[in-house]
Design brief:
Length: 471
């Protein structure tokens, strides 16, 4: 099958979170299993753009309301990612350093989607499926069905995958003029709660809707930032498919970001060496268990409870644990972490920012990974942690619930708790410090979880079944 993935992120071109990891891996494994999978995304000014060779694939023009714009689609020449990668260049709109966070993001991503659909409708053939990811591509299923200029794509099936339903891309109705000439009777297919809602529109218009874990699919009917009734109504075409991880990138035996590699047989020694390097870098004690948090410092991740939970755990464990944070987001939380560095020197440290290399070193060197998330559609961090023999400490929600088994249960290897509260995090850290003393138990848990198969190979088949069901 020919599958066209449309996304705002794709690792290693541009990544802000799990979406980038998934779109960088799934197409590669789909190609390996015999499909023709391609990715099209915006052309940002990233390192990857300047370090690789590109050829011009298509030049076109379109309108965003009254604004007429030219766009160019360039293709990476060497197929180095294992799939064809296309970037959409729209001068002045997409070619910026950051992926998101600009005042004109609605205009940027609407123009991107118009360019993609215009390009696809210029082809002589039609793809078997257009697979859109998250709200930045949520208007595409609508455009393919109801815009007069794209009638050639009317019957092409589309799949929409929700990586995070908290962000929906809401736009006021004044922006409806951006969408190329469309059937005005279909206004309801764009709308939710009096505004244009690209995520809701995609749920209504796509042939199938998937999300990234089974539990998250169930949760959306009860908690989806206002779309609960929509998910209840559309449940017949929605299903959960758990994300995989890219074992080529995330392998402690070969990871290009690590200097000390290890396999399952020498996990204890290997992790200790990585931990020592991290502890030297951040002034921590390598003899104590090391707890890390890696991620966006936002409410969804319950990041704001961590400063107090860590202070509480430092007190309750009598300073028998070290903590290292890597993340950025809410400035108040960033500030709280920065304020803790000096008073808790030798026990706590924090890096505010985004650092891919350091994240790999932390998965390899840490003993425990903290994830108190309020919402976690799938969560990749806990799966990377498992692959690197790091025990995940997670709140029982979404994909965390589907992938982590508490060490108190049969074949358990992680720590689970129910509430995103200081008490639950502190208590779980206490359980972790206790199990850390039991070297045999730690080794057993590490070896067990390192061998769990989270590879994309089996997941690819699940997506193939979805595509086949809509042909
Ligand atoms: P989300 O997409 O909600 O942010 P996921 O768990 O699905 O969460 O994916 C997070 C991905 O982003 C992982 O690859 C994680 O290592 C990475 N990541 C998050 N924050 C940072 C950071 N500050 N530095 C490096 N990598 C990060």
């Amino acid at each position: 099958m020919e599958i066209i993935h449309v996304s705002a992120e794709c690792y290693p071109v541009a990544k802000a979170g799990g979406l980038g990891d998934v779109v960088g891996a799934l197409p590669k494994y789909q190609c390996q299993s015999g499909h023709i999978a391609k990715v099209v995304m915006p052309m940002y000014r990233t390192k990857f753009l300047y370090e690789n060779e590109w050829t011009v694939d298509f030049k076109g023009s379109a309108n965003l309301g009254n604004w007429f714009f030219d766009f160019t689609i360039i293709k990476e020449s060497t197929n180095k990612l294992g799939f064809d990668l296309f970037l959409v260049d729209i001068n002045g709109l997409l070619d910026r350093q950051k992926i998101y966070g600009y005042d004109d993001d609605s205009e940027r991503f609407t123009a991107f989607q118009i360019a993609v659909v215009s390009w696809m409708s210029s082809w002589e053939h039609q793809p078997d499926v257009v697979h859109c990811h998250d709200h930045h591509c949520g208007l595409i299923p609508f455009m393919m069905r109801y815009c007069y200029d794209f009638t050639r794509l009317n019957l092409v099936p589309s799949v929409f995958t929700i990586h995070n339903a908290q962000y929906q891309g809401w736009m006021g109705w004044d922006k409806s003029r951006y969408i190329p000439r469309w059937d005005l009777w279909k206004r309801g297919m764009l709308e939710w709660a009096d505004s244009i809602n690209p995520l809701a529109s995609a749920v209504k218009c796509a042939s199938k809707v998937t999300t990234v874990s089974h539990s998250y699919m169930d949760e959306l009917r009860f908690n989806s930032n206002g779309l609960e009734k929509l998910f209840e109504y559309e449940k017949g075409k929605c299903l959960g498919i758990l994300n995989g991880i890219d074992n080529d990138v995330w392998d402690p035996a070969t990871d290009k970001y690590l200097t000390e590699h290890f396999t399952v047989t020498e996990v204890t020694k290997g992790k200790q060496k990585n931990k020592e390097a991290l502890c030297i870098q951040f002034g921590l004690d390598p003899e104590k268990p090391l707890f890390v948090f890696i991620g966006r410092l936002v409410g969804e991740k319950a990041a704001e409870i961590l400063p107090d939970a860590i202070k509480s755990a430092i007190y309750s464990t009598k300073e028998q644990a070290s903590f290292l944070i890597l993340g950025s987001g809410d400035t108040a939380v960033e500030w709280q972490f920065q304020q803790m560095v000096e008073p808790y020197k030798g026990i706590f440290n924090a890096v505010i920012g985004y650092d891919e290399t350091l994240s790999h070193k932390m998965y390899a060197g840490a003993d425990f990974l903290l994830m108190p998330s309020r919402v976690e559609p799938c969560g990749l961090n806990q799966m990377y942690a498992m692959r690197y023999g790091t025990v995940p400490i997670v709140r029982s929600t979404g994909g965390l619930q589907d992938t982590v088994v508490d060490m108190g249960d049969t074949d358990g290897f992680g720590i689970r708790f129910n509430n995103a509260t200081i008490f639950d995090v502190d208590y779980s850290i206490g359980r972790a410090v206790a199990v850390y003393q039991d070297k045999d138990q730690m080794q057993k848990m590490r070896q067990y979880m390192m061998q769990i198969d989270h590879s994309w190979e089996s997941t690819v088949d699940e997506y193939t079944k979805v595509y086949e069901s809509i042909q």
